[in-house]
Each structure stands twice: as structure tokens, then as C-alpha cells.
Amino acid sequence: MRVLLIYAHPVETSFCAALKERALKTLVANGHSVEVLDLYEQAFDPVLSRAERLAYHDVPENREGVAAEVEQVQRAEALVLVYPVWNFGFPAILKGYFDRVFLPGVSFRMENGRVKPNLQHIDRLVAITTYGGPRWRAFFLGDPPRRIVRRVLRSLVAPAARLAYLALYDLNRADDAARTAFLDRVEADMARL
Fold first, then answer.
1. Contact between residue 95 and residue 108 where contact means Cβ atoms under 8 Å apart
2. Residues 182-192: pLDDT tens digits?
3. Which residues partner with 83 through β-bridges?
4. pLDDT of res. 117
5. Which candidate, 46, 61, 71, 139, has a CA 20 to 30 Å from the CA of 176?
6. pTM for the whole thing?
7. Phi/psi at 53 (nearest 5 deg)?
8. What are phi and psi of 12, to 5 degrees?
9. Which parts of the chain have pLDDT scores under 50?
10. What is the reported pLDDT for 113?
11. What is the C-alpha to C-alpha distance for residues 18 and 7, in angstroms, rounded to an integer?
């Protein structure tokens, strides 16, 4: 399977970096073709410019400036997102990636004024993430990142695509055993991809 692993964390020694490496190692060991998009390493510009917004609905002109990233998404059969949750949202660089790359004609298309999903070639969607605080706090606040993955992104991929949302809550207080257990959970899920 062709996997696009999108990684969004600026620190190479972070726990998210360890999650990315474990996911990547497991996917490759299981014979998948993996393309890694490290948004920070690439210095991806998350800002949707005025010109990009004006051209937003002009397919395929709207891809100018992000053509390489669009091609990566179009080649993928699976998307694996690895990122931390900050302030109950995606890191700005990942949100900007979605704003600039998940365009009309890419992740969705307009038909008679209605949005139709356009990532039907993606059969597997996985989010691997960490939260600094406990699950109850995220639940109380509506857990926006979980909802975006489970509802918005899920609505764009193949109807029968499998979805996994792997989250380690309360990372700020997680001990080595909890971190190791979560790494093992990520490995097991990637092995089933």
C-alpha cells in the first residue's frame, strides 16, 4: 500500500518524533511504500495567501504553489497523520497544510453547488497524536481534533475506509511505561494496516 505519512512537530527529540519513527519503521517492515512529509523539515508555509484564496475554486490553477503536496495526496492509498494537539487543535502548520492542500478538485469537488468527497482512493486514515492534558478535559471541550479527523477527514476518503484515532492523553504526566505502551499500540496498528 502507498502510505503518505504527514508529520507535524518541530522538535526532533520529541515523543511525537518517536511515534513517527515507530510508525514509519513498522510500515516499511510490513512492505508498504511510505512517503514522509515532514512539514517542519520542509518549512511548509501554512499561510493561505490572498492570491491562493482568490484562486481557491479555480481547478486546477488553485494547486499552484502546492502541486508537489497535491501529487503526494493523490498517490496515497493511506494517510497517516502524526502530530501533537496544542491548545485543543492541530499545530498551525498542519492546519495550514489542510487549508492550502485539501482544495476543491483535490480533497473534494463541487457538483451543483454541493461538496462531494474526492479522496476515494484512500482506504485507510490514521491519526496518531498526543494531548498534554487528560481525556476528560478534551471530552469536556468537545475534542475538536478528534472530531475533525473522525468526521471531516473521514467524510472525504473512501466510504469503507478504515479509521483509527490513536491518542495518548495526559502526556505531561505519562511515565515511561505509558509511553512505551502507546508506542507498542502504534506499532500494532501500523502492522495491521
1. no
2. 999 999 999 99
3. 129
4. 96
5. 139
6. 0.96
7. -65, -40
8. -70, -15
9. none
10. 86
11. 11
Collapse the DSSP code of 111 into the 3-class scheme (helix H, G, I; strand E, B; otherwise coil) and give the result. Answer: strand
Three-class DSSP category at 175: coil
- List of residues 6+ apart from 12 with CB closer than 8 A: none
For cell 505519562, what's the residue? Answer: 174
- At 125, list the grid cell: 486514515
Bridging pattern class, strands 114-117 and 108-111: antiparallel
Which 3-state string (H, E, C) describes 40-87?
Answer: CCCCCCCCCCHHHHHCCCCCCHHHCCCHHHHHHHHHCCEEEEEEEEEC
Please give the mean pLDDT across all residues of the chain: 96
Per-residue pLDDT at 90: 97
Helix (H, G, I), strand (E, B) or coil at 11: coil
